[in-house]
Amino acid sequence: MGDAGKEMKMAITLVSGAEIPLPSPVFENETVQQLRLRLSNELKVPSGQVALLCGFELLRDAQKMGSLPCESGMCEVTVMVSKKWDDKLQELLVDPGRFTAAGLASMADGALFNWSKGGDRLLQGPEVKRTSDDGSGVLVKEADCLKFVMENGSSPEGGLWIGGSKFRVLRHDREDEPFTTLLAISTSWHLDGLGMVAISTGSNVLLCRFERPGEMLAGILGPLRKAAAAFGDLMCAEGM
User: By residue range, what is the domain housing residue 209?
Assistant: First the structure.
């Protein structure tokens, strides 16, 4: 067995239910990324088009296979293959109920270029004049807001506006390798439970909106951040 660990009993299927046989077994110390690469070779598609789920959890590349839950000794993994990023955003982040909207924006200008259904409206509003904290008027372009906060970790002049709502930064982490991570909540969090998780790969930003009125932040930020980071792994695999 060596460093590979024990051989695992696996049930690997496509979303359609079709089984995917592998020519060699899966071992406990194999990473999700290694399995994803093996499956992409079997399916003859780029690795960035292959996402792995265990139940409703989108798996991160660095996870060890032995850490996944097994029922009656069997570990079940579902494989989703998709070429379109809007489909991936919808099916992996929104449909499971993690986020209400998700989109991709360029770090060059902060502008959205892909989004889940209706995500453009929820994630990036039109350029409008807002009232700043000192009472003066300032023209706010939300794409510029996103670019500024991901680069600097603080709100720009006039405040951080995303999808027509004003946010405050909870955390901006450049050490969350290989990503820069932003966690933010609306200034009316106690009323609307509105928040954002953003992941930057350096070239692009994954922007995810969640709405959890009445819930405690401490209980939801970890799983939401993990889901966004797992999607970030797919972006990196595709050179995004």
Answer: 94-237
